[in-house]
Amino acid sequence: MSIKGVVYTRSEWESTKKHWGGKCAYCGGIRAGKKNLTKDHILPASLGGQKVMYNIIPACSKCNSEKSSYLVEEWYRRQDFFNEKRLMEIYRWVTGECYSVCRKKRRGG
Hints:
The protein is mainly alpha-helical. The protein contains four helices and two strands; from the N terminus they run αββααα. The protein has a single domain (10-106), classed as Orthogonal Bundle (DNA Binding (I), subunit A).
C-alpha cells in the first residue's frame, strides 16, 4: 500500500489503469480511447496534491491537459461528457477503493 508522500509503483499504476478499464476516468475513453493515458492528480499537485495512489487516476492527455490545476468537480461538471456515476467512482477511489485494488495486487489477486 502507498504511504503518504511516497510515489506508488509501476505495478500499482497498472492495477489502477485496469480498475478504470484502461480508459480515462473522466471521459471514459470517448476523447482518446485507450491511447495516451496519463497520471492525473485528483487534487492538483499545484494545490498540494501528492503523488500517491489515492490521488492519481488515469486520464487521457486531453482531459488531463484541460483539467490542469482545477479541482475535479469544478472542471468536470462543465464538460459535455460529464457523468455523475464516474464522478462518484472518482470519489470512491479517493476515499479508499484504491487501497483494496492495491491489496489484491500485492496478495496476487
